[in-house]
Amino acid sequence: MTWGAAFRRDHPVDRRPLAGLTTIRIGGEAEVVTITSSAGLVEARSVPHRFLGKGANLVVADHGVAEAVLRLGPAFSTVAIDDAGEGRGRVRIGAAADLAKVVAACGRAGLAGPEGLAGVPATVGGALRMNAGTRTLWMFDLVERVEVLLPGEGAPRWLLRDEVPAAYRTSGLPAGTWFLGCEWLLERGEPGALQAEATRLRQAKAASQPLAERSAGCAFKNPSASLAAGRVVDELGLKGTRHGGAEISTVHGNFIVNRGGATAADFYALVRLARQRARDERGIELELEVEMWNPPGDLERDGHG
Ligand code: FAD
Ligand code: EPU
Q1: Which three-class secondary structure state does DSSP give residue 61?
Q2: What gap in Å lies between CA 236 and CA 286, rounded to an integer?
Q3: What is the C-alpha separation between 50 and 71, in angstroms, rounded?
Q4: Do the Cβ atoms of 66 and 48 come closer than 8 Å?
Q5: Which residues pair with 170 in a beta bridge?
Q6: 258 Cβ inside 6 Å of ligand 1
Q7: What is the pLDDT of residues 15-36, one digit of tens each?
């Protein structure tokens, strides 16, 4: 990629394996660019790129990606908590902030709601993009407004919650939208109770999901609210199936874990196996929730938005 000298001086650019920037620890090299200030946004948008948050929902090809991989630096990770009157609090959060830290800060401040996202590894930007959540709460349930840079637009702007067609695991905004931050308007709660609830939810998650292992979260979307992909994979008897260093988790059928040395090709093999068996034996199409960067043709994105 060709960057101007001034851009390179202000915004670190280096080539490195993406495996170390993802939670599943898979993926080849790319040029990684850290945008350190709003001044870098426009130039960064002018090159072919992909956007990286915490890398908790990504499987990157073994040969990496050709595009620049953009990350938001610490200037985009501010968390400001203010009194909003009427017994409520307003939280303004930058997209690079770590969701777990924001959840903890709100608990300490006695602001209720975010504890429902405890245990979801993400940056705030990645959680907005994915409308990440649990069975009881999705990211956009908390959002009052969101700051975005929309494709084709030259400057960021705020969208109200009602202007965002968020749904299950998608913000609904066009591909190429950059999330720069959001604002939550939250009711007051008792800090001790909120923190205890966050701990309870994290522990419940850890009891049913392989949180201590390397993964990219659930591999597949649930086919419907009443049919969990993990249950389908489990009922097909696939838990514990290995391919190279990858394994369909013995704990939860919708997680594919890196048991050591897994490649993207290992991951693809298990995805193909689960989908084929679900289709042939149950007539169920398992759609990917994990985002794949540079996958083989048969695994090109299917409905991810
Ligand atoms: P990344 O994985 O880095 O990126 C995901 C997508 O968001 C990519 O398309 C990327 O380009 C885009 N993106 C990231 N930041 C921005 C930005 N600022 N602007 C525009 N696009 C951006 N998910 C759940 O919903 N619920 C769960 O309970 C859950 N549990 C998990 C447990 C484990 C152990 C793991 C590893 C994952 C889990 N996940 C879960 C998946 C993951 O937490 C979410 O998908 C999360 O939203 C990913 O955020 P991220 O910052 O890591 O995004
Ligand atoms: N189940 C099995 N076998 C398994 C796994 C699950 O039978 O191996 C059954 C469970 O017993 C339960 C049902 O399937 O009856 C649902 O399982 P669970 O409660 O674990 O929830 P899930 O639907 O599998 C969803 C999200 C998770 C989120 C949890 C908790 C999706 C794809 N997954 O999982 O999100 O953490 O609810 O709220 O929507 C993610 O998106 O990456 C993710 C981890």
Answers
A1: coil
A2: 13
A3: 9
A4: yes
A5: 167
A6: no
A7: 999 999 999 999 999 999 999 9
C-alpha–C-alpha distance, residues 72 and 213, integer Å:
26
Ligand in nearest proximity to the CA of 139 = 1
Q: Quick check: CB of 254 below 6 Å from ligand 2?
A: yes
For the chain, list residues with pLDDT below 70: 1, 301-305
What strand order describes the sheet that includes 178-187? 79-85, 88-94, 178-187, 143-149, 157-160
Active site residue 92: no
User: What is the whole-number distance in angstroms between the Cα of residue 145 and the centre of ligand 2?
Assistant: 29
Q: Is the distance from the beta carbon of residue 170 to the nearest atom of ligand 1 less than 6 Å?
A: no
- Asked if residue 179 has its Cβ within 6 Å of ligand 1, the reply is yes
The helix/strand/coil state of 48 is coil
Please identify, by atom number, the ligand 2 atom nearest to the C-alpha of residue 253. Answer: 8
**pTM summary value:** 0.97
User: Which residue's CA is the nearest one to ligand 2's atom 3?
Assistant: 231
* 17: β partners: 29
Could you report the per-residue pLDDT of 210-248, keeping only the tens digit for each?
Answer: 999 999 999 999 999 999 999 999 999 999 999 999 999
Q: Catalytic pick from 25, 145, 169, 275?
A: 169
